Amino acid sequence: MLTAILSGFVFSIFLVFAGKFLKGKLAVLSALVPLALFVYFLSFLPQVAAGEVIRQEIAWVPSLGLDLNFSLDGLSLLFSLLITGIGFLVFAYTAEYLKNHDYLDRFYGYLGMFMGAMLGLVLSDNLLSMFIFWELTSISSFFLIGFNNTSEASRKSAVLALAITGSGGFLLLAGALLLGNVAGSYDISEMVGLSSNIISSDYYIWIVILLFGAAFTKSAQFPFHFWLPGAMKAPTPVSTYLHSATMVKAGIYLLLRFTPVLGGEDIWNTTLITVGGITMFYAAVHTLFRTDLKGVLAYSTISVLGLLVFLIGLGTQYALTAAAVYIVVHALYKATLFLITGIIDHETGTRDVTRLSGLRKVMMPVAVAGLLAALSSAGMPPFVGFIGKDLVYESTLEMGNWAVFLTVLAIATNILVLYAGFVAGIKPFTGPLPNDFKKVHLPGILMWIPPVILALLGIIVGIFPGIINDSIIAPVVNAVGMEGSAVHLKLWHGFNLVLGLSAITLATGILLYAVFKPSAKKERGIARLDFIAPLTLITNFGHGFKAFSNWWTRIFQNGFLRNYVSTIILFLVVLVGYSLFADQNEIPIDLSSFSRMTYYEMIIMGIMFLAILFVVGARSRLTAVVAMGVVGYAICLMFVIYSAPDLAMTQFSIDTLTVILFVLVLSSLPKYLSISDYRMKAVDGILSISFGVLITFIALEVLGEPVNKEVSDFYAENAYVLAKGKNVVNVILVDFRGVDTLMEISVLTIAAIGVFSLLKLRLRRDDRELKD
Amino acid sequence: MEILLAIIIGTLYASGIYMILRRSLVKLIIGIILLGNGANLLIFLLGRIAKGAPPIIPEDSKVFLDAYSDPLPQALILTAIVISFGLQSFAIVLVKRAHKVVKTDDLDEMNATDEYS
């Protein structure tokens, strides 16, 4: 399985080197990769249908609980087949659609990367590796949406999609870590057994919220749905593959995968029903007001995603079966419709549904595929869509008190989805053929065969539902924790309430299609409500946040280094000062333990104090430097008095050197400026003095604490015994901590090189000219 | 005596910070030097001070016989003095250079990272 996942990435990397050869006629060969994978996954069908779960475990970072554990059960297999199957058709279709495109190889590279990531996502049993693949799908989606990188709208949509799905990724990571901590393992298969522990834990609510956030952003649920219509800026094969059939279903996959772990609680079911219900109806209504074919399809995709979330929320045996069937149904007809839209766009140059008509006369096979897909989306018997719709109604009808409301909502949504399917699959092909489309012809066979295959599959599976019943749907239902053997997909249930509801849906939907015509005027009408649309609100929030960050940065990162210093000092004084004085168990400053003052010490201190005042108050550089020297020598004397001869010598030589260096470069140093006004000086003065006072207090408090001399005693006792030296300070420096001293010398050398080069460095020519 | 030292250390810190907060480049360097001296003295004081007991083992002995002042802070400070000299000399030359190239010694005019034009 790892090989299967990696093959997508390997294919992408291969294209980096061999892309040139694959750009021309050979492009279609790249479709062999998904085809081989499709056959590979198909070969697992009997095993999975028999209830087996195929596992592969590879330790990656065991200490983090991050392992490449893959498991293939019914749910993973369904998605793997969709990814590779539709992937195969899309790869083939692209060869014709982007024929002779400059960056065809790049496009295939992104597609291959996406395919690998998506397979990894649905096969990972380890939640952390799943997160990694989840992010990889977001990233490849970003590249694919922005594929036409010369168009600003494309780039904006790509960034928007990345922002929304990427923030969902963060939520997934947070949820995964929380879940892993609660469960004690990151393996989803182990979590299923711990379900009751997880649900009773305090963190359950947070885990659910975080995972919902991830699923809703990825699967474009209200109010995060708006990135999906924007993502339609991508070339149509991408819309087909990522934004309809596979990637946007990753959220659905996540919810299904965690149904047996987290499901069954009120918060789980109610939230999903509410969000799914709102999304499916809201998006379905929007399809009425779109004239761009891809816009219509985008909103009807969101609506179906909402329906899937809604079904997972219902959570019954019927509902989950319906969800599984609907994933298949939707993949088949929506991919067909997208591919057809791509053909129309490619051949006529427009996707405006008000302009398109009569195309059946010039591209019959495409029209047939469109008709079949539209009928399947309408849920007309004997299409697979009919089975799906029946199951939806059956599951809403058993919801007790809410049955009527939920069923009506489902019917209304289905009517609108039917309308959308008809607009995309039938409308462009009926009516008279306008003159400017007379010369339109069928595209290459690679482009029209894939939608025909998908459309035919829709009707074949509809007539013989047994094909997918035991092999695919039952294992999926098993995988989400329900009784798979109870699944019996049938086309004909006899005359009952559900059939009546289906008839109502079909009749009303067809009536709506006949009466309601999409027009630019209606599109403009709904645009007036844009100011309360989630997209506008979130964009405005984004602008506001940016403005706030700008303001914040301007205040705190203003480029004046002094302000940074004073901010740091201010916070230091306030925080440390507060904790020092708020501490009740204050250590009393014990004056009696201090040594006696002698008059010569006091004189030295006095000199030092005066010298410091001189430095601060000096009006010329020379005065300041000389006063600095005095301070240094005074410190030197202190070292002499307090038994530190080595320090005294070092301080003496270093201080002398500093003064000499200062005097040497003094002439070329800038004048001693005094620019600040009195207010500034006062503020800085107060800040500095309070800082000094704080340091004094800290020093005195620390002196009251007992001192630990263990390390010093070790050095003192062993200086001669081990290192044969009697000056302990020297022994420490050159023997015990010799390597440190070596490093110090290196640092000094680097500083010396820096000084030397700064002095000797010639100015660049333009600077020299400037000087002259 | 310690209390006087603590006050001097506080003064060194205060004057160091005050000088760093000035706009003049030269004052910045002086501030850094003052701050460094303050820090050295602080370490010295906190290692406890003692008079007339340098950490040197007497001629005729292999170990200390009397009390001795703590050698560890001294070793640390010795390192610190030398390193701060490296810093100071580099800073002095850098300031000289910056003044020559940017032609200002007002720190407020050196608040952009962009290449000078």
From TrEMBL, chain A:
Keywords: Antiport, Cell membrane, Ion transport, Membrane, Transmembrane, Transmembrane helix, Transport. GO terms for molecular function: antiporter activity. One of its GO terms (biological process) is monoatomic ion transport. InterPro entries: CPA3_Na-H_Antiporter_A, MrpA_C/MbhD, MrpA_C/MbhE, ND/Mrp_TM, Proton_antipo_N. Coiled coil: none annotated. The keyword Methyltransferase does not apply. Residues 124-409 form the NADH:quinone oxidoreductase/Mrp antiporter transmembrane domain. One of its GO terms (cellular component) is plasma membrane. It is found in: Cell membrane; Membrane. It is a multi-pass membrane protein. Residues 682-762 form the MrpA C-terminal/MbhE domain. The chain crosses the membrane at residues 6-22, 29-50, 70-95, 107-124, 159-183, 203-228, 268-289, 296-314, 320-341, 362-383, 403-424, 445-468, 491-516, 564-582, 597-615, 622-642, 648-670, 682-700, 742-761. The keyword Lyase does not apply. Residues 63-108 form the NADH-Ubiquinone oxidoreductase (complex I) chain 5 N-terminal domain. Residues 607-671 form the MrpA C-terminal/MbhD domain. NCBIfam families: PRK12647.1. PANTHER family: NA(+)/H(+) ANTIPORTER SUBUNIT, NA(+)_H(+) ANTIPORTER SUBUNIT A. This is Multisubunit sodium/proton antiporter, MrpA subunit. It comes from Salinimicrobium sediminis.
TrEMBL record, chain B:
Its main location: membrane. InterPro entries: CPA3_antiporter_subunitC (IPR050601), NUOK/Mnh_C1-like (IPR039428). One of its GO terms (cellular component) is plasma membrane. Pfam families: Oxidored_q2 (PF00420). Gene3D superfamilies: 1.10.287.3510. The keyword Zinc does not apply. It is found in: Cell membrane. PANTHER family: ANTIPORTER SUBUNIT MNHC2-RELATED (PTHR34583). This is Multisubunit sodium/proton antiporter, MrpC subunit. It comes from Salinimicrobium sediminis. The lineage of its organism: Bacteria, Pseudomonadati, Bacteroidota, Flavobacteriia, Flavobacteriales.
